[in-house]
Specification:
- This protein is of the alpha+beta class.
- The protein has one domain.
- The chain contains seven helices and 15 strands.
- The strands form four sheets. Strands 1, 4, 7, 8, 9, 10, 11 and 15 form an eight-stranded mixed sheet that branches. A three-stranded antiparallel sheet has the order 12-13-14, with no helix packed on it. Strands 2-3 form a two-stranded antiparallel sheet.
- Helix 1 packs across helix 6.
- It starts with 7 loop residues before the first strand and ends with a strand.
């Protein structure tokens, strides 16, 4: 698989209804909101997690589509296993007084480059998003060709708080009344349409080996990842529009911000009322409605 040779920029619209798309653990798991504008926020890390999970489900960890950062994975162990498969005996890194710093050793020089290449070749998320692999058996760092911004709602959102009650006791001891009734809180956004931006560098793709097969899988993940991520907490989430700008070469033909400005939205219903459905909006490219969910635009 050869690396891609063209630069890409893209705009990604998705929505949530009656759910918490990305709770903030520092704020009691409230939906993330820009405190000054009221716009909803979703982190790039949250979106990358969903892409990883989708590829994991679709490819079943088959190489070269293994996932490095996955649930319960031990990252240093995976790096060591890579060196073992390469049949590289790692030398121990030593302090100034000659004591060994790590019993299992760390890679040196050309060995580190071999380890880095091995990890890029076999792990989809390393080729795509990059990784820091210097915490144990050093396999270097990879700067990923695919970068995402935070997603931001197109209009302010409101966070609703709901009390959760239970009707059954958890323990046998009496009295059980104290175990029944209000037991917690749940937070949701009634509706929000979110917009994120992304960038794909052909120069960084050449370094990590990010290929045409990888980018096709990435587009597929953005379109289908919410279908495999449903939960009571997240409500109804789905991809609405993915507009991809494909440049003619690695350097690109136009600045990303000029391309992003071509993609706009407008309200179709009474703007004095809050939006509660995607049908309340219309996504436009150069002032015209976009019919397709996935649209590729060649940049001349």
């Amino acid at each position: 698989m050869s690396a891609i040779t063209s630069r890409y920029d893209f705009v990604f619209f998705f929505d949530v209804k009656d759910g918490n798309p990305n709770g903030d653990p520092d704020a009691g798991n409230l939906p993330r909101v820009d405190a000054e504008t009221g716009m909803g926020l979703i982190t790039d890390v949250c979106l990358k997690r969903k892409v990883r999970n989708y590829v994991h489900l679709r490819k079943k960890l088959e190489r070269p589509y293994s996932i490095f950062v996955r649930e319960r994975a031990i990252l240093n162990q995976q790096i060591r296993e890579g060196y073992e498969e390469l049949k590289i005996n790692l030398t121990s890194d030593k302090t100034k007084d000659g004591e060994k710093r790590e019993k299992k050793g760390v890679a040196q020089g050309s060995e580190r480059e071999q380890g880095r290449n091995f990890m890029c070749k076999n792990y989809f998320d390393i080729r795509t998003f990059g990784a820091v692999m210097t915490t144990g058996s050093n396999a270097g760092q990879v700067r990923g060709p695919v970068q995402l911004t935070f997603a931001r709602s197109v209009e302010p959102v409101i966070s609703l708080e709901h009390s959760i009650t239970v009707c059954a006791a958890r323990k046998e001891e009496d009295p059980v009344e104290g175990q029944i009734g209000i037991q917690g809180r749940k937070y949701t956004v009634p509706y929000g349409l979110y917009r994120a931006h992304g960038f794909i560098s052909a120069h960084l793709a050449e370094q990590s080996g990010f290929s045409q097969e990888d980018i096709d899988l990435f587009w597929k993940a953005l379109q289908e990842m919410f279908e495999h991520d449903h939960s009571a907490a997240r409500g109804l989430m789905c991809t609405r529009k993915l507009v991809v700008f494909e440049h003619k070469d690695a350097l690109g033909n136009k600045p990303a911000h000029e391309l992003f400005e071509r993609v706009t939205w407008k309200r179709k219903n009474n703007e004095t009322k809050p939006a509660r459905e995607f049908t309340d909006y219309e996504i436009q490219l150069d002032g015209k409605p976009i019919a397709e969910t996935f649209k590729v635009v060649n940049v001349g």
